[in-house]
C-alpha cells in the first residue's frame, strides 16, 4: 500500500483499503452431534443464528461469518482488556470448539463504488451482483493465497480474511488489483 | 472444467485436487482372501469411456471431499455429492443388507 503508483491509482478509482487491527477474531467449530444444542446456545450468546450456508450474519457490532461446513468466524471490535473468545467458550462449552485466531487471521476491507469492478477480473469467483450478493461469503484463493471474502451486508465493499503470514503479500496484491483500472500503460 | 461444490457453488478446477475412483470400497481385512481383495482395491482399475465416479477434494475452498460423476469422453459433470453423504448412505445400505 506504500507504493506511490498504487496510492494514486486507488485514489483515482475512489477505493480505500484498510487493515482492521481493531478486531478480535474467534473460530467456532461444531462438535459432532451437538448441532441443535449449538444452534440454540449460539443464538442466545450472539443474538443471531449461525449461518448454515456461505453467508455472513450481523449482530450488534459482531459479524458471524460462515467459514466452511460446521465452522464460523466471529469478528468483533476488541474492547480493552477483554478476550471475547473466553466468554464464547463458556457460552458454547461442550457444543463447539472455540479458538482465538486474532493473531492468525488478518481482516482487510476494500470500500468504494468500483470495488466489484476491480475484483471481478482479479479473482476466479463470480462477482456478479446476482451471484455474489450482499452478505455472501466465498472461501477461495487470490494470487495463490488462500482467502475468505465476503460482500459487506450494506453493499459498501468487501472484506477479506487471510493468514497473517501472507498479509503483506496479500495486501500488495490487493492494492495492485484495486489500482489496475487506471494504471498508466 | 468447473465443479459445483454443494457448499461453495461452481468453482474453477484449480481449487480442487483429484484423488481417484470413488466407486471402490475398502475390503474386509478379516476375509479369507483379504490380500487379493486389497490388491484389487489398491491397483485394479477399469478404464471407463463414459460416466465415472471420482473423489475430488475442495482444497482451496471449503475442504470438503466430493464424489463427482464425470463423463470421461466429454468432461461433462452430471452430479456432485458430499463424500460423507455418499459414505453414510453406503454404510446404511450395507447395514440393512446384513
Ligand atoms: Zn467447497
TrEMBL record, chain A:
Name the UniProt record assigns to this protein: Sarcosine oxidase subunit gamma
InterPro entries, A to Z: SoxG (IPR007375), TrmE/GcvT-like (IPR027266)
Signal peptide: none
Gene3D superfamilies recorded: Heterotetrameric sarcosine oxidase, Probable tRNA modification gtpase trme, domain 1
Any Pfam family: SoxG
Superkingdom classification of source: Bacteria
Organism: Hyphomicrobium denitrificans 1NES1
Automatic annotation (TrEMBL), chain B:
InterPro entries in the record: SoxD, SoxD_sf
Lineage: superkingdom: Bacteria
Biological processes annotated in GO: tetrahydrofolate metabolic process
Transmembrane segments: none
Pfam families the UniProt entry points to: SoxD (PF04267)
Coiled-coil regions listed in the entry: none
MF GO annotations: sarcosine oxidase activity
Record's protein name: Sarcosine oxidase subunit delta heterotetrameric
